[in-house]
Protein backbone atom coordinates (compact mmCIF):
# COMPACT_ATOMS: atom_id res chain seq x y z
CA UNK A 1 0.00 0.00 0.00
CA UNK A 2 1.35 3.38 -1.01
CA UNK A 3 0.21 6.59 0.70
CA UNK A 4 -1.03 9.07 -1.92
CA UNK A 5 -0.64 12.82 -1.61
CA UNK A 6 -4.17 14.11 -2.32
CA UNK A 7 -2.67 17.15 -4.01
CA UNK A 8 -0.97 14.92 -6.59
CA UNK A 9 -4.36 13.68 -7.82
CA UNK A 10 -6.04 15.44 -10.74
CA UNK A 11 -8.51 18.09 -9.57
CA UNK A 12 -11.34 16.40 -11.47
CA UNK A 13 -10.65 12.85 -10.22
CA UNK A 14 -13.77 10.81 -9.45
CA UNK A 15 -13.70 7.67 -7.34
CA UNK A 16 -16.37 4.94 -7.49
CA UNK A 17 -17.57 2.09 -5.27
CA UNK A 18 -19.78 -0.78 -6.38
CA UNK A 19 -22.12 -2.66 -4.04
CA UNK A 20 -25.51 -4.33 -3.91
CA UNK A 21 -26.24 -3.98 -0.22
CA UNK A 22 -25.72 -0.29 0.55
CA UNK A 23 -28.97 1.65 1.00
CA UNK A 24 -29.85 4.47 -1.40
CA UNK A 25 -30.09 6.79 1.61
CA UNK A 26 -26.65 5.97 3.05
CA UNK A 27 -24.19 8.83 2.77
CA UNK A 28 -21.12 7.21 4.33
CA UNK A 29 -19.07 4.14 3.54
CA UNK A 30 -17.59 2.74 6.74
CA UNK A 31 -15.10 -0.14 7.13
CA UNK A 32 -16.05 -3.59 8.44
CA UNK A 33 -14.45 -3.00 11.83
CA UNK A 34 -17.04 -0.20 12.36
CA UNK A 35 -20.08 -1.88 10.81
CA UNK A 36 -19.44 -5.54 11.64
CA UNK A 37 -20.40 -6.39 8.03
CA UNK A 38 -17.88 -8.01 5.68
CA UNK A 39 -19.02 -7.98 2.07
CA UNK A 40 -16.18 -10.04 0.63
CA UNK A 41 -16.15 -13.71 1.60
CA UNK A 42 -12.90 -14.58 3.34
CA UNK A 43 -11.70 -10.99 3.85
CA UNK A 44 -9.29 -11.03 6.77
CA UNK A 45 -7.11 -7.94 6.33
CA UNK A 46 -7.65 -4.20 5.91
CA UNK A 47 -10.82 -4.45 7.96
CA UNK A 48 -10.28 -0.80 8.91
CA UNK A 49 -10.42 0.44 5.29
CA UNK A 50 -13.00 1.09 2.59
CA UNK A 51 -12.14 0.46 -1.05
CA UNK A 52 -12.83 2.39 -4.23
CA UNK A 53 -11.57 2.83 -7.78
CA UNK A 54 -11.18 5.54 -10.43
CA UNK A 55 -12.67 3.16 -13.00
CA UNK A 56 -16.48 3.01 -13.15
CA UNK A 57 -16.32 -0.33 -15.02
CA UNK A 58 -14.34 -1.89 -12.16
CA UNK A 59 -16.89 -0.56 -9.64
CA UNK A 60 -19.60 -2.19 -11.77
CA UNK A 61 -17.74 -5.52 -11.61
CA UNK A 62 -17.54 -5.29 -7.79
CA UNK A 63 -21.24 -4.41 -7.62
CA UNK A 64 -21.95 -7.55 -9.66
CA UNK A 65 -19.84 -9.68 -7.33
CA UNK A 66 -21.71 -8.27 -4.35
CA UNK A 67 -25.02 -8.98 -6.06
CA UNK A 68 -24.02 -12.60 -6.77
CA UNK A 69 -22.87 -13.17 -3.19
CA UNK A 70 -25.29 -11.06 -1.15
CA UNK A 71 -28.31 -10.35 -3.35
CA UNK A 72 -29.84 -6.89 -3.39
CA UNK A 73 -29.61 -4.42 -6.26
CA UNK A 74 -26.40 -3.56 -8.12
CA UNK A 75 -25.45 0.08 -7.43
CA UNK A 76 -22.55 2.41 -8.23
CA UNK A 77 -21.61 5.23 -5.86
CA UNK A 78 -19.43 8.30 -6.27
CA UNK A 79 -16.88 8.36 -3.44
CA UNK A 80 -15.27 11.23 -1.56
CA UNK A 81 -12.53 9.66 0.61
CA UNK A 82 -12.13 10.72 4.23
CA UNK A 83 -8.61 10.78 5.63
CA UNK A 84 -5.49 9.48 3.94
CA UNK A 85 -5.77 7.74 0.59
CA UNK A 86 -3.70 4.64 -0.13
CA UNK A 87 -3.05 3.14 -3.55
CA UNK A 88 -3.32 -0.66 -3.61
CA UNK A 89 -2.70 -1.04 -7.35
CA UNK A 90 -3.42 0.92 -10.54
CA UNK A 91 -7.19 0.51 -10.10
CA UNK A 92 -7.75 0.12 -6.36
CA UNK A 93 -7.50 2.68 -3.57
CA UNK A 94 -8.57 2.71 0.07
CA UNK A 95 -9.18 5.13 2.93
CA UNK A 96 -10.48 5.10 6.50
CA UNK A 97 -14.02 5.99 5.38
CA UNK A 98 -15.79 7.91 2.61
CA UNK A 99 -18.80 9.98 1.78
CA UNK A 100 -20.87 8.32 -0.96
CA UNK A 101 -23.53 9.41 -3.44
CA UNK A 102 -25.63 6.98 -5.46
CA UNK A 103 -25.10 7.67 -9.15
CA UNK A 104 -26.34 4.53 -10.92
CA UNK A 105 -28.42 1.41 -10.45
- Structural class computed from helices and strand pairing: alpha+beta
3D shape: globular
SSE order, one letter for each helix or strand: EEEHEHEEEE
The average pLDDT score comes to 87
Number of strands: 8
Largest sheet: 4 strands, antiparallel
Q: Could you name the ranges where pLDDT drops below 50 across 5 or more consecutive residues? A: none
Descriptors:
single chain; 105 residues; alpha+beta; four-stranded antiparallel sheet; 8 strands; 18% helix; 33% strand
Question: Any overview of this molecule?
Answer:
A hairpin with a 5-residue loop joins strand 6 and strand 7 (93-95). The protein has a 4-stranded antiparallel β-sheet with strand order 1-6-7-4, with no helix packed on it. Strands 2-5-8-3 form a 4-stranded antiparallel β-sheet. With 105 residues, it is of the alpha+beta class. Helices cover 18% and strands 33% of the residues. It has 2 helices and 8 strands, in the order E-E-E-H-E-H-E-E-E-E.
Please outline what is shown here:
The relative contact order is 0.31. The chain has helices spanning 32-35, 56-70, and strands at residues 2-4, 15-19, 28-29, 50-52, 75-82, 85-87, 93-95, 97-104. The protein contains 2 helices and 8 strands.
Amino acid sequence: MELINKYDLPVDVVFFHGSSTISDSDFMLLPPNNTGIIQEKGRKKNLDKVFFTMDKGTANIYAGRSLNQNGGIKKIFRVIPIGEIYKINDLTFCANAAFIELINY
